[in-house]
Amino acid sequence: MSMLVALPSARLRRLLKAGLRRGLSEVELAALLRDDWSCDPGSPEAVVLLTALRERGWLSQQFPEQIWKTHLGNPVDR
Amino acid sequence: MAHILAIHSFRGGTGKSNLSANLATALALQGKRVAIFDTDLASPGVHVLFGYTAEPDDATLNDFLQSDAPIRRCAHDVTPEPVRRAKGQVWLIPGSMDSDRIARLLREGYEVERLNDAMFALIDELRLDVVLVDTHPGINEETLLSTAIADCLLMVMRPDSQDYLGTAVAVEVAQRLDVAAIRMVVNKLPSHYDPEAVRTKVLESYGAPIGALLPLSEDLLTLASGGLATLVYPTHPWSMEVTRLAQSLSADILV
């Protein structure tokens, strides 16, 4: 979660925060991408963004619910 | 829809756990189904206020986080009788008081998002109205998670210079995380302080509404976390202000 605070991009923080709690449905993700990122879910920009986040392990889609969930927390290092 | 209230303070000793337990009780006295997570896993203490002592086979939050115990097993009904008569209920998800378990948690850590998953799983299983998260003081992974997912962050502080400075850091972090709502709670306010002056200073310092100004109380010091002030001293100014806070949250946030 400290990573979330440290992200310089406010819209990236909003996207990843939205993947907490119950996560994002496909509809919710599409709305957020349009509102905050000015792109449609299937657009090249969205694909690049979501791929980058998935490769970092930060945001991924869970099946069969098809909910997008945020994972920023590594095991707590005290 | 269930709501999450995170109760946080930058420094220790602000009375956060006492407030968490009493606020949970005040909300449950409204007939609400309330769960309180003690996420101060290094030094849990909310269970003391409810008079709860874990039996050897009782599961704690540590068991969920590190041993995959179902979260429902870790939730214990601690509903006081007056709350039960009011048709409310309180469940506690306590931290372990076993020194080996605490040490193991500190050593091995855990994925902090599992706390998020636990809360929503329990909301569904117990049909909860409110989840209160009692946090460890200071900025750490658990408090950041709680802040990020909360519908309202209650920032608890004393009218003390160190608290003023430290709370500013916590509020700044909360604003960076776009927390939905913040309410400032000033606790342990000495009787000779001008409440309106404190109210003005807090509002000017943080730009967040005051949730409650709670008086420093000899009676609470005497109670010494041995019970719930809202039940033992229901007409005490401290208790009445906590009750008023619960009513205000119910009207503004828990809708």
Radius of gyration of chain A: 12 Å
Number of helices of chain B: 13
> Which class best fits the helix and strand makeup of chain A?
mainly alpha
| Through-space gap between termini of chain A | 14 Å
Order of helices and strands of chain A: HHHHEE
Overall structural class of chain B, as computed from helix and strand content, comes to alpha/beta
Helix content of chain B: 40-55%
Q: H/E series of chain B, N to C?
A: EHEHHHEHEHHEHEHEHEHHH
**Termini Cα gap of chain B:** 8 Å
Q: How many H/I helices of chain A?
A: 4
Which two chains touch over the largest interface? A-B, 19 and 21 residues
- Mean pLDDT of chain A comes to 91
Q: How does the major sheet of chain A shape up?
A: 2 strands, antiparallel
Largest sheet of chain B: 8 strands, mixed
| Assembly type | heterodimer
Overall description:
The complex is a heterodimer of chains A (78) and B (255). Chain A contains 4 helices and 2 strands; from the N terminus they run ααααββ. Chain A is mainly alpha-helical and 78 residues long. In chain A, strands 1-2 form a two-stranded antiparallel ribbon. In chain A, a hairpin with a 4-residue loop joins strand 1 and strand 2. With 255 residues, chain B is an alpha/beta fold. An 8-stranded mixed sheet of chain B has the order 3-4-2-5-1-6-7-8, with helices on both faces. In chain B, strand 7, helix 10 and strand 8 form a beta-alpha-beta unit. At the A-B interface, helix 1 and helix 2 of A face helix 7 and helix 8 of B.
